[in-house]
Each structure stands twice: as C-alpha cells, then as structure tokens.
C-alpha cells in the first residue's frame, strides 16, 4: 500500500526541525522493515498572527510503501508522542496514495491553508469525508498541527509545488553538465527557468553551488538561471536554520 505521510508542528526553537524529525521517523520505520520511504517535500503554509508556528509555518510530507498500514500508523503515533519537542502541538496525517480516489475537495483544503486561517474543526470535518483513507491524529499540546499535516498531505496528493528537503552538492572535479547527464545522475525529471517555463532542450549547464530541487507537477524539478549568458543551477541561498 502506498501512502502520503505528513507531520506538522513538532518542534520548538531549540529542537530539530519537523523535516528532520520526519526523516528520522521514517528512517527508523525503514530499519524496522515497516516501510519503504521516498523523498520529503516542504509545503509553505499561511503566515498570519492567528496561526502559531516556530519560524516558517511549513509542513513536511513524504511517501511510504507499507505492508501493514495499522502497524505503521501505530509506529508513527508512538514516535511522535515520544520524540516531538516540548511545547509543540504535533499533528500526523497518513493518506492513501491511490489515483482512483477523488481528492479534489481535500486538495482545495490544502491550497486554502496557504492563504487562509483554518481551524482544527475544519480539518477534522474534511478528514471524515474520506473515512479509512485518511488517518489524522493529535499528539500533544493543542494538537493544532493536524491542520498543517492534513494540508501538506493534500498538497502532495495534488502534486502541488513544494521544495524537496535537502540540497544537492556539486561533484568535485565536474562543473559542466548537459541537462540529460544531470538528470540521469541526480534523478531530475524536469527543468524550468526562473519564470517556471519548461526547458526541454539538452542544454549545457554549470553546477558550482549547492542547489535545491522542487517537486512540481508531480516531477522532481530543477531551476535553471541565466547569469551573464551562462546557464547555471539556481544556488541555494543561505538562511537561518529552518524549522517547521
């Protein structure tokens, strides 16, 4: 069975971020033989004074392939109970990944979480519409993290754009690539320019700075910039430590 697994609001200013917690949780699940895991996508949610968040208000969602959903869900619940940071309001969403399920209303909920203040009640009401295909649970504090957890899973199910966690580092001794070479080595499925226009030609690109990949239109996507006529991978800009 294929699943989307999303968590939100598991950290505080002194703890590891939610993305790292999700990867640790899924890594342990893999070691225990409970799941085969995929990459994690960060979804930016609405920034508003009425929404409590640590620093960025983003939720983290990955994919998992499991044999026993009930056992896997129980493991995730226990892990969040035991490893979420003091003072956090953790939420967990586990969503069935199946193309035959019509998630239209759920995806709209996810999109609205990027521009509106939503409530726990609204999240629970939405989840109830999909019965056993959605697990949504609170794991401490106010439990308000269920809003972001449900929204992140919805956005991933809808193949909405998010940022893939982690960054690619240039390879020592190789700076010049063709698009096809880069795609083959790093698993990139799509190239776009800074305006989002798709690049289909087998262009020559330089890879000299760490770069971030996007999840866009359901594909692993790399952004190409033009620096004085030279095509390069968009560099990762250093920011303060990312949380939530």
CATH class of the largest domain: Alpha Beta
Query: What's the architecture of the largest domain in CATH terms?
Result: 2-Layer Sandwich
Terminal CA distance reads 27 Å
Instruction: Note the run of SSEs as H and E.
Output: EHEEHEHHEHEEHEEEEEE
Helix proportion = 25-40%
How many helical stretches? 6
Secondary structure category: alpha+beta
Task: Give the DSSP E fraction (strand runs of 2 or more residues).
Answer: 25-35%
**Topology, number of strands:** 13
CATH-assigned fold name of the largest domain: Alpha-Beta Plaits
- CA-based shape: globular
User: Structurally, how many domains make up the residues?
Assistant: 2
The value of Rg in angstroms is 18 Å
Provide mean pLDDT, rounded. 92
- State the major sheet: 11 strands, mixed
Low-confidence stretches: 240-244
Note down, in words, how this protein is organized.
The chain is of the alpha+beta class and 244 residues long. It has 2 domains: 2-163, Alpha-Beta Plaits; 166-233, no CATH class. Helices cover 28% and strands 27% of the residues. The protein has 6 helices and 13 strands. The protein has helices spanning 18-31, 69-83, 104-112, 120-128, 145-157, 179-186; strands at residues 2-8, 36-44, 58-65, 91-96, 134-138, 162-164, 176-178, 190-193, 198-199, 204-206, 214-216, 219-227, 230-233. Strands 1, 2, 3, 4, 5, 6, 8, 9, 11, 12 and 13 form an 11-stranded mixed sheet that branches. The chain has a two-stranded antiparallel ribbon with strand order 7-10. Helix 1 packs across helix 2, helix 3 (104-112) crosses helix 5 (145-157) and helix 4 (120-128) crosses helix 5. Mean pLDDT is 92; it is low at 240-244.
């Amino acid at each position: 069975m294929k699943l989307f697994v999303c968590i939100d609001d598991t950290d505080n200013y002194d703890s590891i971020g939610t993305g790292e917690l999700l990867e640790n949780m899924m890594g342990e699940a893999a070691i225990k033989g409970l799941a085969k895991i995929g990459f994690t996508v960060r979804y930016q949610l609405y920034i508003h004074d009425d929404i409590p968040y640590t620093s960025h208000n983003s939720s983290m969602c990955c994919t998992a392939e499991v044999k026993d959903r009930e056992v896997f869900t129980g493991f995730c619940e226990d892990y969040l109970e035991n490893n979420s940071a003091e003072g956090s309001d953790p939420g967990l969403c586990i969503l069935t990944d199946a193309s035959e399920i019509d998630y239209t209303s759920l995806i709209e909920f996810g999109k609205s979480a990027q521009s509106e203040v939503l409530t726990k009640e609204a999240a629970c009401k939405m989840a109830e519409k999909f019965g056993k295909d959605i697990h949504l649970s609170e794991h401490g504090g106010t439990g308000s993290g269920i809003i972001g957890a449900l929204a992140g899973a919805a956005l991933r199910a809808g193949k909405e754009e998010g940022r893939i966690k982690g960054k690619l580092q240039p390879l020592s001794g190789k700076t010049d690539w063709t698009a096809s070479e880069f795609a083959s080595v790093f698993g990139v499925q799509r190239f776009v320019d800074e305006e989002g226009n798709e690049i289909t030609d087998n262009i020559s690109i330089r890879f000299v700075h760490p770069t971030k990949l996007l999840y866009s239109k359901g594909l692993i996507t790399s952004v190409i910039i033009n620096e004085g006529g030279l095509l390069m991978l968009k560099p990762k800009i250093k920011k303060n430590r990312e949380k939530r």
